[in-house]
Design a protein that fits this description.
Blueprint (H helix, E strand, L loop, with lengths): L5 H7 L2 H4 L5 H15 L14 E2 L4 H8 L1 H9 L3 E2 L3 H10 L2 H20 L4 H11 L4 H7 L17 H16 L6 E5 L5 H10 L2 E6 L2 H10 L5 E5 L15 E3 L8
Parallel strand pairs: 3-4, 3-6, 4-5
Antiparallel strand pairs: 1-2
Helix pairs in contact: 3-4, 4-5, 4-7, 10-11
Length: about 260
């Protein structure tokens, strides 16, 4: 059975949606999402307990652009629901919809990034202020003693401290660090890699961060070591090529760029 028009679907949903305009790209995204869900025998606006009920006109666009995270987060935001969520998820997994939506998601992300330039310089500093400058006490309570804000290496570790030390040592070994080398750490955080590398491998380090809180605490923690924090976006660093480094590292930063 053919899917109902998007405008009809909106009329049947919650009242707050009626006042929101329906854009052409939302209609197109809705039809694309409806076709994908149909492969899992899920209908938008259907009457079965695993059918999706949409309450926000941008739901389909968000899911197609962000994939599984967009599906889950839009549900948490109340953009859609269904009475039997476990059956819905089971059908999505069995139909391997994440794999089928991946190409559409990559295409949409590429277009979105080009149109809106979400990672421009001004936005990067705003993200640093809103996220990393929440206060160091918050991160101290949840991270290891080195304040390493990326995944640990748990092959032989029995604690978070051991896992983070193992990860840092693995990175240093892969970089082939030697005493006297100069290391650039892009997105250095509080300087866990730089401090580790300086103490255990005898290198000099320069780290880039867009967080004042990180830079200030990092300087305190690395006092007396050949470690320098720069409050600078990586796109504005060393534009003339004057500075030289034997090694460059970036742990968990470029996923956000």
């Amino acid at each position: 059975m053919a899917s109902p028009p998007f405008s009809s679907m909106i009329t049947e949903t919650a009242a707050p949606v009626r006042s929101q305009p329906v854009r052409k790209h939302s209609v197109s995204a809705w039809h694309t999402l409806a076709a994908l869900l149909a492969e899992a025998d899920i209908r938008i606006g259907g009457e079965r307990p695993w059918d999706m009920q949409i309450h926000h006109p941008q739901t389909a666009t968000r899911i197609l652009a962000e994939g599984s995270p967009g599906l889950g987060e839009s549900y948490m935001d109340g953009w859609w629901d269904c009475p039997q969520l476990d059956e819905f998820v089971a059908r999505v997994i069995m139909a391997r919809l994440e794999e089928k939506v991946s190409m559409s998601r990559l295409w949409l992300q590429s277009v979105r990034a080009r149109l809106f330039n979400l990672q421009n310089l001004r936005r990067a500093w705003a993200v640093g202020l809103a996220h990393y400058d929440l206060g160091n006490d918050f991160f101290t309570a949840m991270l290891d003693q080195r304040l390493t804000y990326t995944c640990g290496y748990w092959a032989d570790a029995r604690s978070l401290e051991e896992a983070q030390a193992a990860k840092l040592e693995l990175v240093c070994r892969k970089l082939g660090l030697q005493p006297g080398m100069r290391l650039l750490d892009i997105g250095c955080g509080w300087g866990s890699l730089m401090k580790f590398a300086a103490e255990r491998h005898g290198v000099q380090c320069v780290g880039l961060t867009i967080s004042r809180e990180q830079a200030e605490l990092g300087r305190q923690r690395c006092a007396g070591l050949p470690v320098e924090f720069r409050l600078q976006d990586y796109r504005q660093f060393n534009g003339d090529g004057h500075e030289r480094f034997e090694r460059i590292a970036s742990i968990g930063m470029f996923e956000h760029a």
